[in-house]
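Lab notebook, design round three. We kept the backbone fixed and only want residue identities now. Task for the bench partner: fill in a sequence for the structure below.
Input structure tokens:
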């Protein structure tokens, strides 16, 4: 299965992607996760990407497209993949189509996870993640707080707030989404592969809806 997950920051793409990995046994390719790892490792790529990410803007297409091409060429993507956070604009979508066409693996579904902006704001400002790379459990101080403030229920490691989940950056990220990423809804509608799911409510119920769509 070759899927693109669309949706504003905080729509729950990452959460649903992780569940899809377990069900379908295909990898999630999250450009945001790859970039955050590069920033944490202080690689050249990370240094280049950091200022764009901290400001809530998009990292240049040339950088992100290179990353995705490299990742898609790896053996575990042969059976399929879940792209999460890519493409983010029309140029990226067109490049992706070209890359996939050249290897004979066209996209099958672009799934948009739809959530109102006021809910997104709470989700993003409240989001906390476990610092342990092996755990990575996510919480939300408004909707699903850890039992002890700032500490992971699962492994006891400290929780952190992503730099780009700070209030001033969030507004910019949502503006960028509206201006650059939302047009992809039309792009994939025209290609006849757009599906939509309401991303509000119980995580498992949303996942079940996604599974019926993907059937
Ligand atoms: P995310 O975790 O998907 O919300 O991504 C976090 C940040 O990484 C974004 O705000 C961008 O700065 C950068 N980023 C992630 N994916 C892309 C992409 N496809 N194109 C450009 N920048 C990206």
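Proposed sequence:
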């Amino acid at each position: 299965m070759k899927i693109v997950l669309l949706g504003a920051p905080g729509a729950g793409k990452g959460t649903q992607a992780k569940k899809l990995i377990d069900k379908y046994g295909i990898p999630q390719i999250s450009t945001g996760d790859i970039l955050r790892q590069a920033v944490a490792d202080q690689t050249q790529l990370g240094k280049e990407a950091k200022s764009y990410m901290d400001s809530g803007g998009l990292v240049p297409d040339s950088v992100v497209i290179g990353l995705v091409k490299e990742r898609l060429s790896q053996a575990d993507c042969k059976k399929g993949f879940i792209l999460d956070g890519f493409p983010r604009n029309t140029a990226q979508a067109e490049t992706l189509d070209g890359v996939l066409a050249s290897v004979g693996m066209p996209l099958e579904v672009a799934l948009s996870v739809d959530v109102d902006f006021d809910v997104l704001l709470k989700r993003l400002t409240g989001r906390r993640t476990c610092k342990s790379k092996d755990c990575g459990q996510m919480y939300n101080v408004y909707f699903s707080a850890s039992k002890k403030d700032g500490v992971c229920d699962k492994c006891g490691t400290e929780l952190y707030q992503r730099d780009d989940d700070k209030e001033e950056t969030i507004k910019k990220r949502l503006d960028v989404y509206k201006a650059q990423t939302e047009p992809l809804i039309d792009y994939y509608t025209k290609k006849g592969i757009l599906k939509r799911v309401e991303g509000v409510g119980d995580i498992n119920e949303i996942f079940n809806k996604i599974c019926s769509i993907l059937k």
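Keep this in mind before ordering anything: The CA atoms of residues 151 and 158 lie 5 Å apart.
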